[in-house]
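[job 0412] stage=complex_fold ligand=serine status=START
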Amino acid sequence: MRKEVVLITGANGEMGHGLIQHLGQQGTFDIIALDVQPLDDHLKPYCLRAIQGDILDTMLLGRLVAEFEIRTIYHLASILSTKAEYNPEAAHRVNVEGTLNLLRLAVEQSQWQGKPVKFLYPSSIAVYGLPDLETKRCAGKVKEYNWLEPTTMYGCNKLYCEHLGRYYARYYRQLAADYGQSSVDFRSIRFPGLISAVTLPTGGTSDYGPEMLHHAAQGLPYKCFVRPDTRLPFMAMPDAIKALLQLEAAPRSALSQYVYNVTSFSISAEEFYQIVKKAFPEAEITFDPHPNRQKIVDSWPEDVDDSAARQDWGWQPDYDLERAFSEYLIPAVRQRYEVARQVR
Ligand code: SER
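[job 0412] stage=complex_fold status=DONE, emitting structure tokens
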């Protein structure tokens, strides 16, 4: 008998950390963690298997199909928006071909199991592309189907993979005689900028928020690469994990769409600075906007409309702006670097 498991790709990334810890502590499912980087030692005890490997390695994915009965896939692996601009074609391979490989794996699994395999896919506010600042400021809470003209390779990849997910869930091999026998239960969330107290993102464009906080907590100077008036929606990492788990648990019949916005609070870089400075008065933070990274952030919405998620699967963040900083980010980030100092 193959073992029933949950597969997490990008397991050693920011979301992977939170998700593995949560699912691991719950202990309901065995976890297979996959990442190109070795999994951090403290996450290993939560996993049945930690595999260092590439989602582009189809032989490796084939071996997973042979060995495990995968009930749910959290496909978190991705090259984020800034990094993707340095090598757009390589990013396309990882973000699109990688996702296609995982969708294919999900189809195969569902054929073996005779039931749909759940496929949780984090998408992003990067799928939006507002043409200019004026439009961004007037757009208000952007709905899932508006302003879908991304300006980054990452945004294009995420938007296309949302479509691929919908295709695999509903139309995959629609002319085949056995069409509809098995399928992928695709569910996606468009996340705003995420802020974790324990990990830093790598290669994103909303990174100025978390970077400001983590630099300040370590007593390191920080040059913020966007203007003070730059506004984006953000969310604390525990809420992002909660959203993924809630969407996973929702009955399919309650879901009226494949892709949902979620958000918690919208905040400007200046407001971020004020909060960080209050918590860490010694912090040396300056603003030194990078023109092209600024343009990317200027094309992303100030706020998104997450009413569909609220209505269909009861989405509600635990951490608003106040709670996110006072009860989670500031105390946890303080503790993180305090412990690091003591270890040194
Ligand atoms: N946080 C991501 C990035 O900045 C957007 O999803 O690339």
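DSSP finds twelve helices and 14 strands in the chain.
[job 0412] exit 0
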